[in-house]
Amino acid sequence: xxxxxxxxxxxxxxxxxxxxxxxxxxxxxxxxxxxxxxxxxxxxxxxxxxxxxxxxxxxxxxxxxxxxxxxxxxxxxxxxxxxxxxxxxxxxxxxxxxxxxxxxxxxxxxxxxxxxxxxxxxxxxxxxxxxxxxxxxxxxxxxxxxxxxxxxxxxxxxxxxxxxxxxxxxxxxxxxxxxxxxxxxxxxxxxxxxxxxxxxxxxxxxxxxxxxxxxxxxxxxxxxxxxxxxxxxxxxxxxxxxxxxxxxxxxx
Amino acid sequence: xxxxxxxxxxxxxxxxxxxxxxxxxxxxxxxxxxxxxxxxxxxxxxxxxxxxxxxxxxxxxxxxxxxxxxxxxxxxxxxxxxxxxxxxxxxxxxxxxxxxxxxxxxxxxxxxxxxxxxxxxxxxxxxxxxxxxxxxxxxxxxxxxxxxxxxxxxxxxxxxxxxxxxxxxxxxxxxxxxxxxxxxxxxxxxxxxxxxxxxxxxxxxxxxxxxxxxxxxxxxxxxxxxxxxxxxxxxxxxxxxxxxxxxxxxxxxxxxxxxxxxxxxxxxxxxxxxxxxxxxxxxxxxxxxxxxxxxxxxxxxxxxxxxxxxxxxxxxxxxxxxxxxxxxxxxxxxxxxxxxxxxxxxxxxxxxxxxxxxxxxxxxxxxxxxxxxxxxxxxxxxxxxxxxxxxxxxxxxxxxxxxxxxxxxxxxxxxxxxxxxxxxxxxxxxxxxxxxxxxxxxxxxxxxxxxxxxxxxxxxx
Lengths: 252, 461
Fold this sequence. Notes:
The complex is a heterodimer of chains A (about 250) and B (about 450). By secondary structure, chain A is mainly alpha-helical.
């Protein structure tokens, strides 16, 4: 625990320009350690943010909030749970205004900087995943990711195994062309005009993309298992029925 | 204004001038035309009618008993907790009101607006496409169950306040089932009286912990646990929930289901459910409360409930002359977790099969007659169950998927299709062009949400 605290303070020292308010109430030990971890987490978020100047507001009650969830069965507990409303961390960013990103603030050199919006929104979602916020009617979230144009997403998509896939597709293509030529006498140029060969290329590329690693086979198998589980659960009920009916038919 | 909107619910039911319509006979002509002759070989009963016991007095049991009693079958309905308030969301689709001829005064609230709230707090209003007369009914189970039981009793079923213990299976086709139960009489106080009852067939409608299922060795099913708190909130906050229900999705609320705030008669029900992380249900409940916090601030919990919800049907839903219906059989949909309508419907369908097979109680029945019910049920509702299962698997899988789900629900076409299929329980063929557009948009949403997820992972460092 101590080392976490130290690392957290170190990181805080590194980025002293960022403003972090952290008033904690050292009530219960586990809660405190949780609190400290949170802080270190959030600080790392700032380190890779280039120009964000988020402000964290953490209230005294945060530790009691963390401890409260254990058992809340009666009315008093609810009240306590509800009273801690002010204790939650709130996402604050100067570009986040009235439930949406202020796109004017993402303009760089006269161009819209969509990458910045994507990163900012990812950061907001991550924050909400760690500290789920309550949905209010006063401040509805109006931002929709659909306003970001499709090419901005494409620019950011990145395949770590791109080199491997390219190489694999080229190898398969080359040898298939060789084999087809050897067996049918259809040369490479002829193959490019052939419908079957075109379809073959398409299938190859799809397969290469789908099965990048060995694990992909297992994943696919798991997926089919998952999708057919429910059918099996239903079928088992009718199957047993059929068996039972056969048995009863024999009896009579 | 708010005082008009929020009538006090002093009695069990709101009073209404509308006459109740108990004695409208349901059109049975269609079924009689399709009469199945499976049991023509079975012996005709002499001196008496067919005796059927319905175990459990929920929607399934009530509807089954009513249908049986109406068609001349000697019906016994055994229910222990006559005035029990069951932990249940209590939403019924519009078509149930018409199909089961429910009086409008048992509906506490008519929900016309739904709000879906994503993990990043994007809130989407669903229900703009609803026509003025369309709504989702919110009932209290104690009211609905009591009404259905009363109606069964009026039609001639004998309602027994008793606890079903076990039953002896017959050795051959002619012998009866012997049910053992403890009868509780209001006057005698705590201690019940042990009794037995001989019947020719049994309908097990006794819920998730079914004893009937156990006694026919029906096997188990996976179940989800649902946790719900009924919270009485201040009147000014209640105005917001007057005809609005909220659904929260997110890993914090539930890893494989949703958290909800449903309006009830004079309070709201806040709850959540899960299959995979049952031990953490309290944590999820707290998270749900947290997400809805501003709107239920100052509320007081008046009741805490938890209940198992079946995930799929039991391996065996009937054996000989015993059939399971409702929760006992496991008829709860995935994704929406809806069970009342399907319970009532399966009870009625099973009863219809018995009525047909016994020719209004004059013949003995056999397993073939009971299986007609299963076949019809699977044929009618299997697609519904499958579609909802796929939806749950695709969209409740992870936070990005949930974001995409909420985005998708903002689409009017989706809302129209969803509500049509929910309210009327019919799969309406959609417009192919719109379907294609929807597919493209959904994939787009999923891709975007997952790209953001990748960004989030990079932030972790």
